[in-house]
Design brief:
The protein has helices at about 10-20, 35, 55-60, 75-85, 95-100, 105-120, 140-145, 165-175, 195-205, 215-230, 230-245, 255-260, 265-275, and strands at about 1-5, 25-30, 45, 65, 90-95, 125-130, 150-155, 185, 210-215. By secondary structure, the chain is α/β, with parallel strands linked by helices. It folds into 2 domains: about 1-130 and about 165-185, 3-Layer(aba) Sandwich (Rossmann fold), CATH 3.40.50.720; about 135-160 and about 190-250 and about 265-280, Rossmann fold, CATH 3.40.50.720. The strands form 2 sheets. A 7-stranded parallel beta sheet has the order 3-2-1-4-5-6-8, sandwiched between helices. Strands 7-9 form a two-stranded parallel ribbon. Bound molecules: NADP nicotinamide-adenine-dinucleotide phosphate. InterPro entries: Ergot_Alk_Oxidoreductase (IPR051604), NAD(P)-bd_dom (IPR016040), NAD(P)-bd_dom_sf (IPR036291).
């Protein structure tokens, strides 16, 4: 049985059905099974990683997909240790390309610690290091819905965004076939696109023009405070991460194609799939 943490998240909600389709038995963790809409073929279990009885949750698990909320290295140490105790044979951890590039932002540093815990726990391990997700572009939803405009910090780099379904497909492969033990895979989409190119592609999928507005970092920060009520500290953290990853986001790895035997999903495909979410609020 494969135990999936983060089963309702961006990657996990695609991973659970992919594993089930591959014939695996799946246990899916969520804090609220009633709300979670987990594939009924999976065993949904309730648990909060902050307080969970890990030995009970891990009982009978052969393999574990390790994803903790908030990039929590401490929880990953606990999960990896408990998994080893429970007789788990393979841990697959979702990390970030930030570790590959040696980034020093807090998210990459926490993932580096989590990777180390998974490598040292005892069971076989595989590390998946995706770059920036296409799903991050859902942050453009409110201004598109309100005024068909996208505001982009002028420091945002070209990015080889990856579709979360490609990450899930790689995770499913690694969890259901052998030969990936001890491997670390960097995962990106197939091409780096500037933010202007991304907005043009999205406009094409929506069938209406979008205004592309570049703004300074301080204007972008003000907008996040005014429009979304983000705390200043979270915004500074986000921009620290952006600064660290900016020189690296254009780098394309061929791992998705090598592992899956097909090119990565494109941003145009993502835009078409998600176009209905961007309908205009009149
Ligand atoms: N976004 C990117 O561009 C990017 C790039 C590279 C790597 N990553 C990494 O991808 C990972 C995904 O992060 P995300 O923020 O997008 O989250 P996510 O996986 O979309 O969602 C969070 C998941 O964690 C679960 N969860 C939250 N709190 C929990 C708790 N206390 N106990 C148990 N489960 C809990 C949620 O389940 P319930 O709500 O159902 O309990 C949900 O399934 C992160 O490690 C991030 O660093 C992201």
């Amino acid at each position: 049985m494969i135990f999936v943490l983060g089963a309702t998240g961006k990657v996990g909600r695609h991973l659970v059905p992919a594993l089930l389709d591959a014939g695996a038995e799946v246990r899916a963790l969520t804090r609220d099974p009633a709300k979670a809409r987990i594939d009924p073929r999976a065993e949904a279990v309730r648990g909060d990683l902050g307080t969970a009885d890990l030995p009970a949750l891990l009982d009978g698990a052969d393999r574990v997909f390790v994803l903790t909320p908030g990039h929590n290295a401490e929880q990953e140490v606990a999960v990896a240790g408990a998994a080893a105790q429970a007789g788990v044979t393979h841990l697959v951890k979702l990390s970030t390309t930030g570790v590959y590039f040696g980034q020093k932002d807090p998210i990459s540093v926490a993932h580096a610690e989590g990777e180390q815990a998974v490598r040292e726990a005892g069971p076989a391990w595989t590390i998946l290091r995706p770059g920036a997700f296409m799903d991050n572009r859902f942050a453009w939803l409110p201004s598109i819905q309100e005024e068909d405009a996208v505001y982009v910090p002028d420091t945002d780099p070209p990015s080889a965004l990856i579709h979360v379904r490609d990450i899930a497909a790689v995770a499913a492969l690694v969890l259901t076939t052998s030969g990936h033990e001890g491997a670390t895979y960097e995962l990106t989409g197939g091409e780096a696109l500037t933010t202007r190119q991304q907005v043009d592609i999205l406009a094409e999928a929506l069938g209406r023009p979008l205004k592309y507005v570049e703004e300074s970092e301080s204007a972008a920060k003000d907008r996040l405070i005014r429009k979304f009520g983000w705390p200043a500290q979270a915004i500074d953290g986000l921009f620290a991460l952006k600064r660290e990853s900016a020189p690296n986001e254009h780098v394309v790895f061929d791992t998705v194609e090598r592992l899956l035997g097909r090119p990565p999903l494109t941003f145009a495909a993502w835009a078409r799939e998600n176009a209905s979410a961007y309908h205009r609020h009149e």
